[in-house]
Amino acid sequence: MSDVSGGVTFPPMASGGRETEQYESYEGFLKAAIRTYWEGGAKSKVNFLALLFAAKETWVVAFDKVASPEAGKKLLTGAAGAAALALLLRVVVGGPIGILLTGASVASLVAIYVKNHGRIWLKVEHYKLVIGEYRGAWDQIRSDWAEKGLTDSQRDLMVDGLLARLLIELDAYEPNDDGDDEVQEKGFAAHTAKKRAEEDRQAAMEKAPNGKDGNAKED
Prior knowledge:
With 219 residues, this protein is mainly α. It contains ten helices and two strands, in the order ββαααααααααα. It has a two-stranded antiparallel ribbon with strand order 1-2. α6 (82-97) crosses α7 and α8 packs antiparallel against α9 (152-172). The protein is globular and about 50 Å long. The N and C termini lie far apart (61 Å).
């Protein structure tokens, strides 16, 4: 069966497992990015965790099978604790993503998450935007392969280059150059509080008569 993406029908790609999944789907591309970053030595474990959370489509379905919906929701909003992250790393990362983590690696990543929680989630917000932008570039390569006669080797080379550029761009981003974890934590807290306030205001407007802000005064 052909694959349909963005209104364009593509011929099916041969499935070759993890060695080729970055060429077959964007989810596979993100899985390969996570594996490549880890297997390359994970220059920054903070960045590794930020990438893992930002690319939630690579693991969220599998995580939902082993954890409660509430645990998944907390994990995706930065509100989950060390236990939820440990579950994600032990059960899920070794499954759909394909990274084998030792007990020491899991413990190290959990400790880094606890210490750098705010900094990680500030990075996640930026990483999500970058990942969204790279989806368009990946889709264009696939379209050129399917419709314009791009050879498999040309496609593979272009996708590999795209993956390398993605990791370089993510590694280069720092939300706060002074590296002050306390400042980072406050920044994340402010971001979360602002988002929650906007959601509360929207909920109040939906409940108010005629869709008006329930807290607004009439003239």
